[in-house]
User: What shape does this take?
Amino acid sequence: MSTLAHEFKATYAFMERNANLVKRYWTWEIVWLVYSIANSLSVSYIGLGMQQLSGNQFDGRYLVLYLVAGTLVWRYLSIIFYWITDVIGMERWEGTIEYTLMAPIHRITHMAGQTLFAVIYSLFFTGIILIVTVLLFNIDMSNANVGGAALMLIVGSLSFIGVGIMGSILPLLFPERGSQMTHVLIALLLLVSGVYYPVDVLPEILQKLSVLSPATYVIEGARRAFLEGLPTADLWPYIWPTLIMGIFAIPAGLWVFEQAERYAKRTGKLHRSG
Amino acid sequence: MAEAVYIHEAYKKFGKSETPFWKRIIKGNGNKNGINRKNGQKTVVVAVDHVSFSVSEGEIFGVLGPNGSGKSTLIRLLATLLLPDGGDIRVFGHDVVRHPMQVQRLINRVSVEASFFKKLSPMENLIYGARLYGMNGADARRRAVEILKRLGLEERAIYKPMEEMSRGMQQKVAIARALLSRPRLLLLDEPTTGLDPRSKHEVQDVIRELRDEHGTTILLTTHDMLEADNLCDRIAIIDSGKIVALDTPLGLKGLISSNEHEPTLEDVFLELTGKELVKEEDRLG
Assistant: This one.
């Protein structure tokens, strides 16, 4: 019981530390928020632009909503991914990696703290972008199943946590360039997951890969709840593949991380700061 | 007295072999330590070379050596931050490789570089550290203030970002963070490097107090001969990963004779290794 209490305290330690860091780096958070809003709006305006370029041949409003849903879900998932992959990167930058990794806690506790914070932060961050987008595009959300879309995001978090943990080994194994390498993973997921277009437009090989990306199901499910108001019960075909991927990805991620940590301790890669 | 640290034939090497492992398997080249040589150059560096010693509970044990001699590697092996390539390392009977979590619960470490979240305040950093060691926030806060004040930190500095503090002050916070978890074995890797003489004395007083009042075992690496002489019960002199002498400060001084003056630890080191403890360029910073 005392061990469990210790692990809970440690989980909270990571959440509190990250909250303190966000507070201290508040100017950067504002810059990042402005960037994210501008980015989401730029993508969404493509919908109105396409309507004009095609001579009003199709409904630009629908395309805007399609892109808004994609960009918001993607923003949410990628923020979670980056917070988790940064579990090592940020400590390398600060020089605290050895202190944290010699603490008497299980790695799952370490990851749980980072993950819980990432989910809360990402929900808050995406919520702000959603409010700005809804106000600017005057989006009617009366038919949207917001609860269903939120459920898809929460379920989708699980699989992205697993992928994020696997990605976090890159800064552990490659002190100099590991953090940058994580961008490759996120770029590949962006390509195959149908964030800004239906996966049907992709070449066959990429369509096969899209089946393996959890983001494909999260984005499609959230989009249908958001755009068509699909009832939560009907979202099950999108929920179960994501759940299964999460159930496998999290333990797999932890196992991979433990192997990488062992390798880093054997080769002395913890000490080097890139 | 119980054995706090037991190290037998500890061995650690770094670097890559020039020859791919499949060629080594086929040809069986390379010596038993895995050191390959090409044009006389080592491609593998042996940081800790079959080191053996033990430290009793409540002892202050010093490790002296020049830069690159393997002192910090030894500390990292004990701190479970590195895995040894050979030998047996135990802390209070727990094997550092097989039972790292049990070891981690009993130790803490202060490294030569104060490693902190620099935008966070000392209090925020200390609370984070304390929670990792199972302390609750209120206790940690109270104790953190006590320890930081004991180390001579002003109360207003406790809540300012670490990046606004001098290196000496940051090092004191690092020591406070280690003390907060009440470790049974404290690993101090050059803890007073960069501190002014007064701060050095304050830290040295705390080290003595820890041992005398709490029975904490301390393993200390240092470049400061006087510090080692004053603080340590026994000292190991390490050079190129090997222990070249191990005794009490008095015993070490007795190893050499000098007609001109009483031998110092530095004289002993020069005699045994033919090297200066700190390279001139390091001394100049």
